[in-house]
Amino acid sequence: MILSRLVEIENDLNQADKSPNTSETSKQESVYTKMYFKISEPSDFRCAKVLKLKNLAQNFLEVEKMVNLLWMHGGACNGNTQSFLNAEEPTVIDLVTDFGINILYHHSLSMEFGEQVRRLYEQILNDEIPLDILVVEGTIIQGPDGTGHYDMLMDRPKKNWIWDFAHKAQYVVAIGDCACWGGIPATKPNPSESIGLQYMKEERGGFLGTQFRSKGGLPVINIPGCPAHPDWVTQILVAIATGRLEDVVLDDLQRPQTFFKTFTQTGCTRVQYFEWKEPVEEFGQGTRKGCLFYEQGCRGPMTHSPCNRILWNRQSSKTRAGMPCIGCTEPQFPFFDLAPGTVFKTQKVLGSIPKEVPQGTDPLSYSVNAALARAVAPKWAKEDMFVP
Questions:
Q1: How many structural domains compose the chain?
Q2: What are phi and psi of 136, to 5 degrees?
Q3: Residues 5-48: pLDDT tens digits?
Q4: What is the pLDDT of residue 371?
Q5: Average pLDDT of the residues of the chain
Q6: 71 DSSP β-pair partners
Q7: Could you tell me which of 49, 124, 192, 263 has the fewest CB atoms within 10 Å of its CB?
Q8: Measured between alpha carbons, how far is 237 from 244 in angstroms, rounded to an integer?
Q9: Burial tier of 48 (Cβ tally within 10 Å: 0-12, 13-18, 19+)
């Protein structure tokens, strides 16, 4: 567990401090190496300063109770873990050191394996170790024929482990589209029989069932995305760990409204072109002029996410980089089951009217509005916004 690793590092630091023959440089190099191999991955950990780490290890010894978190990985590409490890506000280190989250096990962070992990799992199921937060990344694989034998863990279908842990946890959090609604693995014909924790696409129920509530009284908290933004994840975990979950209001798809109330279009740098209904006619123009919605299949006006409010890498977003939003925070993703001719292409009726339009309007009314807007659009709306 992460806590035990840092306590070991604290002891190593104390021994190094007592050695009269150890230079300050070699002390730091030794601790740096131990930190890398004992905590393992990502760059945030490897770049942490030795003095900071020493202080953090000491803080652990003064913490009376930490919130236990277990991370389970189902059918997925591990993209949400890679995103999570790049969190900045707060970082993964901050979760442990500043917000009292004890990561019992995470497949990309923990050193335990094999029988060590089995023993940990058994301690949780036997109520020897309380489970405060269960995080699930990836689909629940039920194939073949509902047995779950396509995805085994320690001689049991992994779905059985997840079922048991979900009924032990105070709170259950689904990270990423696959865990929330099934995502790409659940796209037809779905040979793995993948399903989301409490949804199958937009249909409520999923693996745990419609009536499931964790011991804390909540349904599964869905944080979708392909992947989910790392700060969406860490901020919700902080809310749970600090007892502020009552401040997190869920929408009708069990997503935190603080992130999923607005649309991807909110804050998009192409929004002025959307207003005047000026399209991008081909890829490559999206960073310079026009809106990607009309021809390139951008789902920004219909997708609930803060991607243009909470930027990726504090720098950009898909639409700011000229890439259409693919709607990956919505349960229907991937849309149209990835049928040929539907990816990066706006689907239309009669060749000109978009099949799907922003929430609160209808295709015909929207098309009339679009025609009027284009007719009165100012000259600058048709010009390249950048000058070489």
A1: 3
A2: -120, 125
A3: 555 555 554 565 555 554 444 333 333 333 333 333 344 443 34
A4: 84
A5: 84
A6: 135
A7: 49
A8: 10
A9: middle
Quick one: 154 and 231 in the same domain?
Answer: yes
**What is the domain range of residue 46?**
1-62
Least confident of 16-30, 130-144, 160-174, 220-234: 16-30
Residue 144 and residue 79 in one domain: yes
- Compute the radius of gyration of the chain from its Cα atoms: 24
Residues 35 and 132 occupy one common structural domain:
no
Q: Assess whether 277 and 229 both reside in one domain.
A: no
Q: Residue 262 above 60 pLDDT?
A: yes
Q: How many Å apart are CA 73 and CA 78, to the nearest integer?
A: 8
Which residues partner with 353 through β-bridges? 349
Residues 77 and 18 in one domain: no
Does residue 130 carry a pLDDT above 80? yes
User: Do 205 and 224 fall into the same domain?
Assistant: yes
Helix or strand (DSSP H, E) at 204: strand 203-204
Span 311-330, mean pLDDT?
91
Does residue 50 surpass a pLDDT of 60? Answer: no
With left for phi above 0 and alpha for psi between -120 and 50, is residue 305 left, alpha or beta? Answer: beta
Residue 363 contacts residue 349 (beta carbons within 8 Å): yes
Residue 234, token pair as written in the block: 């860490």
Which CATH number belongs to the domain containing residue 245 in this structure? 3.40.50.700
Identify which of 306, 352, 348 has the alpha carbon closest to the alpha carbon of residue 325: 306
Per-residue tokens: 254: 């069990």
d(CA 368, CA 385): 26
Which residue, 224, 220, 305, 225, is CA-closest to 267? 305
- Please indicate, yes or no, whether residues 320 and 218 belong to a single structural domain of this protein: no
